[in-house]
Amino acid sequence: MDNYEKNYLSKRPQSLCSMCGRCCRVSTTSVPYARLLEMCEAGEETAMDFLGIFEPYSSTDAAREVDAELVDNVINQLKACNNYDESNMTFYRCKYIRDDNLCGNYENRPLLCHYFPGSAWAVVPPGCGFEGWLLWKREEDKQKIRHSKEQLLELQVLKCRNLTPEFQDKAAEVEKKIQKTIDMYKKYGSEFW
Ligand code: SF4
Ligand code: SF4
Asked: Both 44 and 109 in a single domain?
């Protein structure tokens, strides 16, 4: 876990979770099921943790029968980012979620449950208690990226004023670092912020 994640999680108000259990009943991953299985075979901890508790639904329609609003919300969000591939879409259900919405594996639940939603960009079920807070955290990310873009513009100006090779090299190095930060958020649309 990197420092950003630690910092994010330490400030996340867990009390916002209304314990509706929807994220346990219908979940999905950013990688296809076949890839998850390969990752498990390779001993990747996160994939092993996930498939240790989640079982795939037989089809998207089977997941829709449990929570159609959630399934359609995920699909619509993926479509909006041109990231939807029906053939690679799998929904999962945790085998430990109880009828009263409580976790039947609470003491031994993996870290991924403990930290959900683990990023400002996590897709949560509609009506999840974290929705508003996530929007706020996303806005913070956007502001950070806007500031980085301003820094890039300032650097351009400084490069025009100081043509020494030393300064140009240093500026190029800094530009690369700033651009890397912006690119980290590209999949969320950072080029338009
Ligand atoms: S969907 Fe949100 S509010 Fe419901 S149990 Fe999951 S994290 Fe908590
Ligand atoms: S282990 Fe518990 S908290 Fe984690 S997904 Fe399953 S029911 Fe939810």
From this structure: yes
Same domain, 111 and 37: yes
The structure tokens listed for 192 are: 């338009």
pLDDT in tens, 46-61: 999 999 999 999 999 9
- For residue 119, the CA-to-ligand 1 centroid distance in Å is 14
For residue 68, being part of any structural domain is answered with: yes
* Orientation angle between helical segments 33-41 and 45-53, nearest 10 degrees: 120
CA distance 103 to 29: 20
Instruction: Please indicate, yes or no, whether residues 123 and 142 belong to a single structural domain of this protein.
Output: no
CA distance 159 to 182: 20
Q: Which domain holds residue 57?
A: 3-9+19-128
What would the pLDDT profile of 123-144 be if each residue is shown by its tens digit? 899 999 999 999 999 999 999 9
Question: 0.70 cut: is pTM over it?
Answer: yes
Q: 108: CA distance to ligand 2 center in Å? A: 9
Indicate whether residue 20 lines ligand 1 (CB < 6 A). yes
